[in-house]
Structures are given as structure tokens and as C-alpha cells.
Amino acid sequence: MPPPRDIEGGHPSRQNSERDPLLDGSNGNGYAVGYGNGNGYMVPQGQGPARGGFVRHVYSKTKAVLLSNYVNILLVFVPLGIIAGVMGWGPTAVFVMNFLAIIPLAALLSFATEELALMVGETLGGLLNATFGNAVELIVSIVALTKGEIRIVQASMLGSILSNILLVLGMCFFFGGLKHREQNFNTTVASTMSSLMAVATSSLIIPAALYSTLAGSKEASFGLILDLSRGTSVVLLILYVLYLVFQLGTHSYLFDAQHESAERGDETDDESPPEEQQIALLSGIESGIVLVVVTVLVAICAEYLVGSIDDIVASSGISKTFIGLILIPIVGNAAEHVTAVVVAMKNKMDLAIGVAIGSSMQIALLVTPFLVILGWIIGQPMSLYFETFETVVFFVSVLITNYLIQDGKSNYLEGAMLLGIYTIIAISFFVYPDSAGSLGGIPAQP
């Protein structure tokens, strides 16, 4: 890329910025979009608009945010969902409107996170994407936990993991394989993530196995399971912190090499270099403002969504498990799913796997243990004890995923396998009644 023209004091000159081709169709603010951050991206300078005033600046930024994704047309359901909840409309209307409202809000969270990630580098940016990519499930789960809906919390956590390692990864393999005969990815990074997922799987198997061997009353046995779950959650959180040190510190070269390899592969394609140059539409502060506003809106919609679930279950016959395990994760991860598939079709499988498995690992090692500790603090019996059927499904899913990624290659048939097993699991949970086992991890609770 040729060096910027007319640099004065390290900043692009306003005098010639309007004729800089990088500004065409960028952010529409009438001033230079800035300079490189060392990661191959262009970021805003952080200065105000050159002319037009504050109102024009806010208008242009708002326009850029709203036009960032076609799915934002569903933002009309955000006020409708809130009004439906406040006015006490029927539970079906409240559920459907807030369900649809969360889809574009999740897309806006993803957009703002990606804008922020452009300024902090590939590795930390990927971590931010995974963190805020799980924000919707976390918010919904916290709201459900405060209401005592432990069944929804557990199903949402398990569903988020399954949707990422089966649905998202399967779609990446399938659609990427249709465009590319065989795709390769970094086996070291993938195996590290999958190994941590195997550890997370054991944290669910052990409580279920212990509960099945305990004698005495179910209430006394569950008290022991709570103690085990809380201790295990602390261990999982420590493991996640160690993984962050491993990823961002001591072994960061593994992840950096992963991206450098992808970039070297892109450079062999004549059409790739222009695609690598990305322009940030928002500054760091503006991205933070969007994240805060959208997070508040998600929390409000989640409040009404969770509050209507009991009536929906009673009127439709759909189980809480199916709503939490299939519907909520698909909605919460919709934008992230699309991004991963698009990246896979560009033959950047390292990034796609980082989104799919990395997000699942964060749910298993960070979000779920955090919710167990939070439940302990607020007096809710959230545990790592899942039903035997759910635990087996989780174990089989992680096992299949580990088998498919261990060779460092993927094709469309492997993607079809993952999509097939996810479809089977979805059907099984659709016919699986809540009454088949304990609700919320508490045996014999009505």
C-alpha cells in the first residue's frame, strides 16, 4: 500500500484529504479516516468532523451503524417488543416481538465489536469478538437466573456450545467445502481449544456421575452437587485465565503465526490485498457507546422475553429446554454465524474455527462457571449438574468435533456430518419434555 499523502505531524492533511480515494464511500464525515494501526487496518483519528457540526457527525455515524447489516430492518421490533411488554400484550406477541428484536441487536453488538477490534490487533480483536458474541446469551441467562429459571439458563449455555461446535462449524465446513475442494487450518490452535472443551465436558460428566452414585435423599445429594459445582467453577475460571495468558502472552506466537500464514496465503491471490484493507467507521469511544446502548436494549428485551416463556410453554407445548437450547442460541449468535460462514468461504478457516470453537470454549470455561458463582451469590441453586441425556449429547458433540478437526483439514462432507448431528439433537430436544427429569438441576422440583 502506498504511503499516505500530505502528512502533517503524523495526521492526514485536511487540505488534500477530500481527494484521497480511501475516503470515497467510507464514513461520510468529510474528514480523513486516519492512519494504520499496525494490524493492516485503517482506524479513525478520533478528531471531530471538519465541518458540518456535531449534528451532522452524529447523523453520519448513526446512518453507518444502521446500514451496517440488512438484518437491521428488524430493529422496528425493538420498540414494539418493549411496548408489548410494558402494555401487557399477550405472551405470544411479547415473546415473538422481543425474540425478533434480539436478532438485529445481536448484529449491532457484532458490528460495534468488530469496529473496536480493528484497533487492538488480531488476537485481542478475536477475543473481543468471542466475548461480545456471547453477550446476548449472557444477558438472557442473567435475567433468567435472577428469576429462578435455572432450566432456561442451563439449556441456553448448552445450546450455545452445541450451536457453535455443530451448527456454525458445520456450516463453515459445508459452504467452505462447496467453494474449495479441501481447506486447511492450524491444528495446534484447534487442538488446544478442543482439549479445553474436553476438560469442560468432564466438568459436566463428573457431577452427573456423582449424583447417580450418591445414596440418601435427593435434596441432600443435590447439596453436595452444589458444593462440587461451585468448586469446579472456580477451577474452570482459573483455567480460562491461564488460557488467556497462553493466548495473549507466553504462546502468542502460535496465534500470530496462524494469522501470518493466512495473510501469506492471501498474498498469493491477486484479488486478496484490496480485501485486507479495512476501514473503521467508528472510533473507539463511538464503538463503546454503541456497545453500551445495545447491551441495555438487549437486557430490556431479554427481560420481557424470559418473562413470557412460562406462558408460551403452557400454551404451545414447547418445552423450556427446546426454547433455551435451540431457539435462543440461534437468535443470539445469528450475526456471528453469518460472519463465520463468510470467512470460511474466503478460505480463512483459522478465523472461522476461532469463532466457532473459541466462542464455545468461552461459554464452557467462563460464562457457565460465572453463572454458577453468580447464582451462589444471589441465592439461586445454579449447578453444573445437567440431565444425563444432555450430558451425553454434549459429550458426543465434543467427541465428534475433535475427531473431525484433528487432521487439520475439512471438506463439505464433514460439514454435512456436523449439521446432521445438530439436526438430530434439535429434533430430540423438541420431543424431550421438561418433566422427563429434574427442572433447573434440582431433583424432584415441580
Automatic annotation (TrEMBL):
One Gene Ontology biological process: intracellular calcium ion homeostasis
Superkingdom of the organism of origin: Eukaryota
Skewed-composition ranges (Basic and acidic residues): 1-22
Transmembrane segments: 64-87, 93-112, 124-146, 152-175, 196-214, 234-255, 288-309, 321-344, 351-378, 384-405, 412-432
Protein's membrane topology: Multi-pass membrane protein
The entry's keywords: Antiport, Calcium, Calcium transport, Ion transport, Membrane, Transmembrane, Transmembrane helix, Transport, Vacuole
GO cellular component entries: endomembrane system; fungal-type vacuole membrane
Primary localization class, coarse: membrane
Subcellular location: Endomembrane system; Vacuole membrane
GO molecular function terms listed in the Swiss-Prot or TrEMBL record: calcium:proton antiporter activity
Any matching Pfam family: Na_Ca_ex
Xref: InterPro entries: CaH_exchang, CAX-like, NaCa_Exmemb, NCX_ion-bd_dom_sf
Domain Sodium/calcium exchanger membrane region: residue ranges: 92-248, 289-429
Location of the region described as Disordered in the Swiss-Prot/TrEMBL record: 1-26
Gene3D superfamilies assigned: NCX, central ion-binding region (1.20.1420.30)
Family label: Belongs to the Ca(2+):cation antiporter (CaCA) (TC 2.A.19) family.
Role description: Has a role in promoting intracellular calcium ion sequestration via the exchange of calcium ions for hydrogen ions across the vacuolar membrane. Involved also in manganese ion homeostasis via its uptake into the vacuole.
Annotated protein name in UniProt: Vacuolar calcium ion transporter
Organism: Tuber magnatum
Lineage of the species this protein comes from: Eukaryota, Fungi, Dikarya, Ascomycota, Pezizomycotina
